[in-house]
Amino acid sequence: MSQDESPSLGALRGLEASVREQFENNRRVLSFDEYFSLFQHAPQEHCRTAAQYLRDCLDFYGTREIEHMGRSTTRYRLFDCPWEDDDESSVRYRVVGQEQAQAELYRMLTNFIQEGRVTRLILLHGPNGSAKSSFIRCLARGLEAYSAEPEGAIYAFNWVFPSSRLAKKRLGFGGEDDTPKSLESYAHLEEDDVDARLPADLRDHPLLLLPKERRRELLEGMRREGTLHEDFRIGDYIRDGDLSPRSKTIADTLLSAYHGDFQRLLQHIQVERFYFSLRYRRGVVTIEPQLHVDASLRQVTMDQQLQSLPPSLRSLSLYEPMGDLVDANRGMVEFNDLLKKPLDSYKYLLATCEKGTVALPNAILHLDALFLASSNERHLAAFKEYQDFPSFKGRMDLVKMPYLRNFRTERAIYEEQIARGGLSHQVAPHATYVVALWAVLTRLKQPLHADAPESLRDALKKMSPIEKAEFYAGTREPEGLTPEQTRDLRAHLPTLINECQADIDYEGAFGASPREMKEVMLNALQDESHPGLTPLGIFDELRKIVKLKSVYEWLKRPKQEGYHDHEAFIDIVFERWLDHVDNELRSAMGLVSAEQYDELFQKYILHVSYLQKGEKIYNSAASRAEEPDADLMERLEKIWQAPEDRERFRRDLIGRVGAYRVDYPGEELNYRRLFPALFRALESDYYSKQQSEMRKVGQYALALLTEEEEGPRASNMKLGQEQRAKAEEVLKRLEQDFNYPRIAIREALGSLIGQRY
Predict the structure, then answer these.
(1) d(CA 468, CA 475)
(2) Interior CA angle at 358 toward 353 and 360, to 5°?
(3) How far apart are the first and last CA of the chain?
(4) DSSP assignment of 92-144, as one string?
(5) What pLDDT, in 10s, does the model give residues 531-573?
(6) Contact 315/306 with Cβ under 8 angstroms?
(7) Strand partners, 139
(8) Which residues of 719-736 are buried (b: 16+ CB within 10 A; e: fewer)?
(9) Tell me: the pLDDT tens digits for 177-199?
(10) Nearest-angstrom CA–CA distance, 189 and 187
C-alpha cells in the first residue's frame, strides 16, 4: 500500500484481489479447449441433464434417518437448508416434514434419468398451506447453493466477435484473415477488443456445439474407455440435442464462411460458468397463475450490438426466444397454482412435457428443464372431472402433500417462526405445543375398524382424537389395552396412517393450516392481557376462531364420535397443558418424577423375581446379600389393590415381562408401556398424598409473584421467611430447569392451582 493510500482504500484493494482470485478459481470464463479438458476429466459432471443435476444436488447434501410416526424414514438434508446453518433467515425456506414427498420426487427424477429426458410434469397437490410452494422454493435455493460448489459447476457459452484492431478485415468474410495465428480463442479478450458478445439464447450446453454424430461417437468412445461410467445414462438432450435456433444460425453461417474449419468456429466460443438464481431468473423460474404466454420470439437483428457483427451475420434475420420457459432452461420451472388457470392456457404442456419442446411461430425450442406445479385439492378435484383429464394425467406425476399429523413435527414449524422473528424471550413454555396439538386434532379422522384385526376392532372404535394424535406422535398409547393389544396396535400403525389416503377426503386434506395457526400465534402475542405468547393467550384466540364457521370450511364438518369437535379440542389440549405444568411444579418442588416411578417399579419387579427364585439380593451399599424387600412389595400391591392371591398376581406380572422379552428380543423393556394401569395407580396415589403440599407451595409462589409485580399490599397472603424461601426456590427451578420467563409463571401456576388444587 502506498503512503498516499488510506487504510480504507487498502481494504478495498484487498477485497478486489479476493474477488479476482475467486473468479479465477471458480473457472468462470473458459475457452472451448479449456472447457473440453474439464469435460474429459469429469465427463459425468459435464453430461448431466436437468433431472440428473437436481438428483445430484439432493445426493450432494445427503440424507439422514429420522423417526416419523413409529417408523424410520429417510429425510433429504437439502430440505433443511444446510448451506445457511448460521443464517436465521434461512429457516423460512426449510420444509418441516413431508419426507414422503421428498422420496417421491427422488424416485421420479430417477425415472426421468432412466427414460433419458423429463417426460412428465410433477404436480404437488394438497390443502392450502401444506408447504407446496416452500417445497419448490427449497429446491430452488438448493440449486442456487449447489451451483456455487465445485461439484455443481455448470456452464453455458457466448459467441464472441473481436474488434477490427485484431483483424483488419472481418474474420472469414471478404478476404484473408489477418488475425495472429497465436490467438487460438477470443474467450479471454479484453472488452476493448470485442465488438460483439452474444449469449446462447437458451443457455445451451457447450457440448451441443459438437456435431451430433461426432458427439455420440465421442461419448460412446469414452464409455468404452471407462472414462464415462457404464451405468451413467446419457440424456437425450446431451446425446441427440441441438443448438437453439439463433446459435444454430450463427454456427452454420460461420462454418460456411470458414469453409468447414470447425476449429476457427470454436475460436468464437466463450464458455461461461453460470449460477442458478430465482431472483434473476437464471435456470429457476416461477410462473404465477396469471394469463400470459410462457415463451415467444422477438426479432433482434436491429439490436445495436449486432451492428458490430460480420456482414454475413448482420444481414440475417435473427430471432431471440424469450419468456419463462426460456429463462428456466437447464433448470426448473414452477407453475404456481397451475389449476387456477383456464385449462386452455396450459394445454400446450401436454406436448411440452412429453416431448420437451415448445412450438413457436418461427421455431421449435428444445428444452431441458424440470416442470413442477402446485395445486390445492379443490382445484385438482374439479380438474379430475374435466373430460380431457386422462390425457393430462398421462403426462403428470401427482405428489401428495397433506397437512402433518404428528404434532411433534408440526411444533417445529412454529418454533422456527419464533426463532426467525427473534421472539423466543416472549414465548412461554408449551405455547407451540398447544398450537400444534390442537391443529393436528382438527385434521384427524375416526379410524376404520370393520376390517381391522379382531383383537383391535374395539380399541380402534373407541380410540379418541387425542389418543390417536398422541399415538401418531409416539408419546402415549391408548389406555385400557392389554400388552398384546398394544403390540398389535403398534404393528397396525402403518395401516392406520395410510387409511383412505386414496380418497379425496383423506386424513390430512382438511383442518387448521399452519398459516392459520401462525396468525393465531401473532394475534395472541399482541394481546396485552397476557405476558407475551402464552398458552392461555392461544386458547383465547382458538375460542375466537372456532366461531368463524362461515370463514373456515373445515369448521363445518359434522362431529363424529368426538372427531371434528373443535371446541372440545380446546378443553382437551388445555388439560394436557395443565398436565405438563403439574409435572413441572412437582419437579420444581423436588417431588417424585416420572423417572423415579420407573425406578420404583423396576425395583419391585427385581425383588419379586428374586423372591420367586428363592434367592437373596446383593445390597452393594451394605456389602451383603439380603432377602427381597417384603415391605416394598406389600406397600405397592396395596396401592394397586392387588387380589388376595398375591403369589398369582406376582407370577402373572413376571410372566408378562418374560413374554415381552421373547416377543421383542434386544429391545429395552418399557415397564410404563407394559403396565400402564399400575403406573397410573402409583401416580394417582402419590398425587393425592402430595396435593395439599403442592397447593400450599403453589400459592406461596403466586403470592411472591404478586408482590413483585404489584407491590406487597397486592397479595392476600403474607409470607413468612420459610414460605418465601420455598416459593423463591420453586420459581428459580421453573426458570432454570423449564425456561419459564418469570413474568409467565404466574399465569401458568394460577391456572393449575385454580383448576386442580
Answers:
(1) 10
(2) 160
(3) 76
(4) GTPPPS-HHHHHHHHHHHHHHHHHTS--SEEEEE-STTSSHHHHHHHHHHHHH
(5) 999 999 999 999 999 999 999 999 999 999 999 999 999 999 9
(6) no
(7) none
(8) beeebeebbebbbebbee
(9) 444 444 578 888 888 888 888 88
(10) 6
Give the DSSP H or E segment for 284. strand 284-287
C-alpha cell read off for 204:
445451451
- Do residues 158 and 200 touch, judged by C-beta distance below 8 A? yes
CA pair distance 209, 38, nearest whole angstrom:
16
User: How distant, in Å, are the alpha carbons of 336, 514, 552, 570, 744 from that of 542?
Assistant: 31, 13, 13, 7, 19
Amino acid at 500: C
Tell me what percent of the residues of the chain surpass a pLDDT of 90: 46
Q: Give pLDDT tens digits for 397-429.
A: 999 999 999 999 999 999 988 888 778 788 999
CB 329 within 8 A of CB 203: yes
How far apart (Å, rounded) are the C-alpha atoms in residues 270 and 159?
6
Task: Name the more confident of 711 and 148.
Answer: 148
CA nearest neighbour of 131 among 103, 99, 172: 99
pLDDT at 290 over 70: no
Residue 547 CA from chain centroid, whole number: 32
Give the separation between CA 43 and CA 218, rounded to whole angstroms: 11
268 pLDDT above the threshold of 70: yes
Q: Please state, in angstroms and rounded to a whole number, the distance separating the CA atoms of residues 532 and 536.
A: 10
- Confidence (pLDDT) at 27: 64
Residue 705: name the closest of 739, 751, 750, 755 by CA: 750
Q: Which three cell numbers stand for residue 689?
A: 398424598
Residue at grid coordinates 404437488: 124
CB of 125 closer than 8 Å to CB of 374? yes
Asked if 748 contacts 581 with a C-beta cutoff of 8 angstroms, the reply is yes
Q: How far apart are alpha carbons 109 and 590 in whole angstroms?
A: 56
pLDDT digits (tens, 9 = 90+) for 52-86: 999 999 999 999 998 877 778 999 999 999 987 65
What 3-state class would DSSP assign to 64? strand
Query: Could you tell me the three cell numbers for 400?
Result: 401428495
| Inter-CA distances, 541 with 219, 346, 550, 557, Å | 64, 42, 17, 20
Residue 508 DSSP code: T
The whole-number pLDDT of residue 598 equals 82
Note the Cα 538 to chain centre separation in Å.
Answer: 26
pLDDT tens-place string over residues 439-490? 999 999 999 988 888 888 999 999 999 999 999 998 888 887 877 788 888 8
Residue 221 has pLDDT above 50, yes or no: yes
Burial of 526 (0-12, 13-18, 19+ CB in 10 A): exposed
> What is the rounded distance in angstroms from the CA atom of residue 752 to the CA atom of residue 576?
11
H runs (alpha helix) in 241-296:
245-257, 262-266
Write the single-letter amino acid at 206.
Answer: P
Cell of 199: 449469449
pLDDT tens-digit readout, 150-183: 999 999 999 998 886 665 444 444 344 444 444 5
Burial of 678 (0-12, 13-18, 19+ CB in 10 A): buried
DSSP element (H, E) containing 377:
helix 377-384
